[in-house]
């Protein structure tokens, strides 16, 4: 049978991070502007659906298609997406994990810069806005192109702002433009389309200039980073490959990767800072664990992770409660299909409501309360990690998950090893900015140097 609105009713009402919706059971349909949409509020259903090849598309959304020229790995559909994704995974394995020590050292370099900057501003309110964006970009940029940006470089500061503008959807008008394309076309300024497009064009344009710079020290066949490996592929690609010179896929693919670093990893570190500053008892428990393991060393390393279960629980709880990608990226059926006894037509938008899954009171006791202990059993072993999917799931899961998890561990652990954090009188707003992701609004905290 065809899935229709209000098909299955339930007794629970949940508030989505992006929309106020009635959840009529684990699966229901709704019309969102021009998009016929099916919403999945159950983790098992989301995992099942996202494994199906019929659910692997992305809905046509003008702002992303225009900015990226219908290319890349994030916002478009088709076989080229998976050719690019597979290549990125191969490069990440080669340049990040086959030589893990080198990659970790690059992250540690950025952490040292962050700690030094914090150390210059201790014992006073610090306004936090995109504070971690450039360091997390740099940690990734070393793997991508073998370079780093100076934190004071106005170009990279502008790039961070453009990335934020591109993915933002603040206000009702912006959401209207997102789902009702005719409204965005008729009123581009009012709906925020102009601002989004300007940000998107700037991000992809920046990457295009990076590609055109080439690499004078490159030795063909001996790549040292993702860009050089891409150039090798570029020179030997067949005409039907997305790596062929006529396709010009590099700016969109690398742009999508860069957006993930700016809008997810950095924002998750911000949420960790906020929740731990607002919950000093959990901050103290984390620091006690760090002190017991690290001793007098200067920085924590990835090798310390197995000995830090509470640290891992903190990261999982931050990922759960913040639910940075409340809906993830939207999926789209590429043909008529059957799912859970329902006929779902071709060109139907599929939303996996990850926020609902992460805040379901039937799964999580007091889901709005920050409590890392929910991820530990009595023997301090991690549990319940399979019940959250902050990096999505299935065939279009986030391919940068391993890199992001390493960055989150190293940044958060080292910040709280070195500093106590407290809130100012202006406590952080737990209601996030609205957009494709849900980063926190600018906030203030006070860093106090610890006497480790």
TrEMBL record:
CDD domains from the xrefs?
Answer: CYP1_2-like (cd20617)
Q: Which species is the source of this protein?
A: Allacma fusca
Record PROSITE patterns: CYTOCHROME_P450
Kindly state which keywords UniProt assigns to this record, in alphabetical order. Answer: Endoplasmic reticulum, Heme, Iron, Membrane, Metal-binding, Microsome, Monooxygenase, Oxidoreductase
Topology in the lipid bilayer: Peripheral membrane protein
Pfam families, alphabetically? p450 (PF00067)
Q: Which residues form a coiled coil?
A: none
Q: Where is it found, in Gene Ontology cellular component terms?
A: endoplasmic reticulum membrane
Signal peptide (residue range) = none
* Domain of life, per lineage: Eukaryota
Source species taxonomy:
Eukaryota, Metazoa, Ecdysozoa, Arthropoda, Hexapoda
Protein name per the record: Cytochrome P450
State the Gene Ontology terms under molecular function.
heme binding; iron ion binding; oxidoreductase activity, acting on paired donors, with incorporation or reduction of molecular oxygen, reduced flavin or flavoprotein as one donor, and incorporation of one atom of oxygen
Give the record's GO biological process terms: organic acid metabolic process; xenobiotic metabolic process
Q: What does this protein do?
A: May be involved in the metabolism of insect hormones and in the breakdown of synthetic insecticides.
Q: What is the annotated localization of this protein?
A: Endoplasmic reticulum membrane; Microsome membrane
Task: Return the InterPro entries for the record.
Answer: Cyt_P450, Cyt_P450_CS, Cytochrome_P450_fam2
Is Heme among this UniProt entry's keywords?
yes
UniProt record similarity statement:
Belongs to the cytochrome P450 family.
The cofactor(s) it depends on are: heme
